[in-house]
Amino acid sequence: MPYDVVRSEQKYDGKIVSVRVDMVIEPDGSQAPREVVEHVDSVAIAAVDDQQRVLLIRQYRQPFQEYLWELPAGLCDKPGEAPTATARRELAEETGFEATDWTSLVDLRPSPGISTESARVYQATGLRKRDRPGDADGEESDLEIEWVPLPEAVARALEGRITNALAVAGLLALAVRLGLQDETTRPADAPWPGEAAAHP
Q1: Residues above pLDDT 70, as percent of the chain
Q2: What's the CATH class of domain 42-177?
Q3: Cβ distance 157 to 164 under 8 Å?
């Protein structure tokens, strides 16, 4: 049962995110503020070829001021567009590939303590190359694309070299689906994300 909200105040209203503060009644009867980021939902795509290689992209992320390896992904920000259509569009726009076979791989809420964003990672197979629609500009203008064997991609995630939440979840779910096992371990005092090199 949801906590009762005494009042809610909008603090910021942007294109992708809005921020509000809800004053909620806790189970013990006390009141506490809860900051909520209203975030557009998103999709990501684990595109896998016949050699069980997965398609990764390297993209600049301003909050961390570095390039991160990720799965192709995008926001569900076009009114009336189904999430599967968003996934097809983003795969084509970011990589120039299209796929004939699509399945849902894993759902996640990347930061449920503060954000309303829900996400789905799809598995896409039956790939073929096509021209990227339009001219890449903005943040997509310098995307780097790499086909990586799935065991190597999973190892990168477990070693902390891939840290994007959708990418990590998608790669590990794909590994489970395809029966991959991995023995990668790291010490508890391994470098914190951002302290290690972002590029494998």
Answers
A1: 94
A2: alpha beta
A3: no
Decide: 150 and 123 in contact? Cβ < 8 Å.
no
Angle at which helices 150-158 and 165-177 pack, to 10 degrees?
130
Burial 3-12 (b: 16+ CB within 10 A, else e): eeeeeeeeee
Residue 91 and residue 85: Cα distance in Å, rounded? 10
**Is 140 noted as a catalytic residue in this protein?**
yes
User: Quick check: 170 and 87 in contact, CB under 8 A?
Assistant: no
Pair 121, 108: CB distance under 8 Å: yes
**If pLDDT is split at 50, 70 and 90, which confidence band does 184 have?**
confident
- DSSP SS3 for 68: strand
CA 140 from chain centre, in angstroms, equals 16
Which of 38, 93, 98, 140 is the catalytic position?
140
Environment class of 195 (CB within 10 Å of its CB; exposed 0-12, middle 13-18, buried 19+): exposed
Q: Are 21 and 11 in contact (CB under 8 A)?
A: yes
Residue 55 confidence (pLDDT): 98
Q: Where are the domains of the chain?
A: 5-39, 42-177
Distance between CA atoms of residues 140 and 3, nearest Å? 41
Contact status, residue 130 vs residue 98, Cβ threshold 8 Å: yes
H or E, element range at 119: strand 119-129
